[in-house]
Design goal:
Blueprint lengths: L2 H5 L11 H19 L3 H7 L8 E4 L5 E4 L25 H24 L4 H8 L6 H11 L1 H13 L1
Antiparallel strand pairs: 1-2
Length: about 160
């Protein structure tokens, strides 16, 4: 996938303009990152080679994920995820490293949602902020400790809200 794919958000359309569209975009990107950090963790871990340059974990609006170099144009169209997630991989406990990537991914997801929300009016922004959802950090941390059972129950709670 190339930079134009990331610029477009991989949603195939224009930027989300309503609270519902922004939340759908957020949930799809979050789902992609959650899958990378849990179900596809072996593939994700292998792609984050510390010998490579600064890598980022991207979650897209079509629920695909990618480990890639950041966009080269400055400024970028969307906020960029944490840079250099691969460097700490071998220097940390695997579970702690995945939790660190999850924390950075949570921050990035919120920044993308609020970037889109800048166009909303006051009431719409309030609606967006008041939407409850589990942070990726908690889900990944619990997945590493407790496995799929807790993860599935937590996912069902966050999807229903």
């Amino acid at each position: 996938m190339d930079a134009s794919y990331r610029r477009a958000g991989a949603g195939g359309g224009s930027a989300p303009r309503t609270v519902e569209d922004i939340f759908k975009d957020y949930r799809a990107r979050r789902s992609a990152i959650l899958r990378a950090l849990t179900h596809d963790v072996e593939d994700f871990y292998a792609q984050c080679d510390p010998e490579k340059e600064n890598l980022c974990l991207y979650g897209y609006a079509n629920e695909a994920w990618e480990v890639a170099l950041p966009a080269e144009e400055v400024p970028t169209e969307l906020p960029e995820p944490a840079l250099g997630i691969n460097f700490a991989r071998d220097g940390m406990n695997r579970r702690d490293w995945l939790a660190l990537v999850a924390v950075h991914s949570d921050s990035w997801l919120v920044s993308v949602a609020f970037y889109y929300a800048a166009r909303l009016n006051r009431n719409e922004r309030y609606d967006l902020r008041s939407t409850p959802i589990f942070p990726l950090f908690l889900l990944v941390r619990c997945f590493c400790c407790c496995g799929y059972l807790f993860l599935l129950s937590a996912l069902s709670l966050s999807i229903e809200t």
